[in-house]
């Protein structure tokens, strides 16, 4: 902690102060978290042990599920437990750790979605060079760089906050620790830090979303030269990816590309990309993907 801070713990106000609604929050988000763990674990196990899902697309999908699992685990368990707690107390160190995990896995999800889009672009637009470009070694190197970039981003967010003094009050009007709610409690001028946060997190979200949308427009445009069967298969895969990109990026852009103001909808928007997106991604990538569903059936039949 900074030497001039007097706050050692924070109190999370959560999604609601109503006892009846808190019990509802407990059951709803317990189900969401259970579904997230089950769905992403099932995808990771299927990809790991299936012989038919060895392409780079499923290599990146494995890491997307791993990130979704970790992302939700850094937020959801505390939200579930706090919904039944009288005092939602979180220590300074725990708060900073949660913030680091939030930005580490959130940024990693963005990078993995970019890698998946690049994989689809090369597979559809440059099919003859695809096996050469997307070799296993290349995929591993790309994932390592993605982790390094995510770690750098998360570290930069923590460094900005670790030097801020917190003198009171210690009430965080949120259900998790994030940059904007903490900046409101700092006993210092945070304008410059907020500007740096927007230029960092906001730039990553906005630029990545723009790159992804342009890449998928190019991919969809190139599908006109493919056969009807190939076009249908590629379109199904790209549609899944576009849906995942939209539900991941729109809330992120809303939260991190604006002045230091808070809105009543902030908590629900944060719920959508910290709890909802990790829950929905397994459904998007399995319900719309015949190869994954067939691999799950084969794996299930072998195991039982």
Automatic annotation (TrEMBL):
UniProtKB keywords: Cell membrane, G-protein coupled receptor, Membrane, Olfaction, Receptor, Sensory transduction, Transducer, Transmembrane, Transmembrane helix
Molecular function terms from GO: G protein-coupled receptor activity; olfactory receptor activity
Origin superkingdom: Eukaryota
CDD domains: 7tmA_OR4A-like
Topology within the bilayer: Multi-pass membrane protein
Locations listed in the record: Cell membrane; Membrane
G-protein coupled receptors family 1 profile domain segment(s): 39-285
TM regions (residue ranges): 24-45, 57-80, 100-118, 138-162, 201-223, 235-256, 268-287
InterPro entries linked to this entry: GPCR_Rhodpsn (IPR000276), GPCR_Rhodpsn_7TM (IPR017452), Olfact_rcpt (IPR000725), Olfactory_Receptors (IPR050427)
Cellular component, GO, one term: plasma membrane
Pfam families listed in its UniProt record: 7tm_4
Main location: membrane
PROSITE patterns attached to this UniProt entry: G_PROTEIN_RECEP_F1_1 (PS00237), G_PROTEIN_RECEP_F1_2 (PS50262)
Annotated family: Belongs to the G-protein coupled receptor 1 family.
Protein name: Olfactory receptor
Organism: Dipodomys ordii (Ord's kangaroo rat)
